[in-house]
Automatic annotation (TrEMBL):
InterPro entries: Rieske_2Fe-2S (IPR017941), Rieske_2Fe-2S_sf (IPR036922). It comes from Allochromatium palmeri. Transmembrane segments: none annotated. One of its GO terms (molecular function) is 2 iron, 2 sulfur cluster binding. CDD domains: Rieske_RO_ferredoxin (cd03528). Pfam families: Rieske (PF00355). The lineage of its organism: Bacteria, Pseudomonadati, Pseudomonadota, Gammaproteobacteria, Chromatiales. Keywords: 2Fe-2S, Iron, Iron-sulfur, Metal-binding. This is Rieske 2Fe-2S domain-containing protein. Residues 6-101 form the Rieske domain. Gene3D superfamilies: Rieske [2Fe-2S] iron-sulphur domain.
Length: 105
């Protein structure tokens, strides 16, 4: 495992279909639990620098509450206008009952 991975939460603290917000080394990150997998994306909409954590999950997507753009949790790609730039996606690992994120990527 990369030396950059940081343990951020116990797996059982993030219910299926929910997300939490974590801050690691200056990055505000959304950690989502969807269909048994964990995804980490930056907590910032690429449209107008608005927190995506104010929005909600829509399957494998996070939806911005300001203008409605949805982003893939897997690729960070925007799926709806008005956003046209991707958001950052961070590598995630599960080990020893913890979720680990690499914020260096
Ligand atoms: S700020 Fe997110 S879609 Fe406009």
């Amino acid at each position: 495992m990369s030396e950059h991975f940081v343990a951020v939460a116990a797996c059982d603290t993030i219910p299926e279909g929910k997300f939490i917000k974590v801050s690691i080394k200056g990055h505000d990150i959304i950690l989502a639990h969807v269909e048994g997998r964990y995804h980490a994306v930056e907590d910032n909409c690429s449209h107008e620098d608005y927190p995506l954590s104010f929005g909600c999950l829509d399957g494998h997507r996070i939806k911005c509450s300001l203008h409605g753009s949805r982003f893939s949790l897997e690729t960070g790609e925007p799926l709806d206008e008005p956003a046209d730039c991707p958001i950052r996606v961070f590598p995630v690992k599960v080990m020893d009952g913890q979720v680990w994120i690499d914020p260096s990527v």
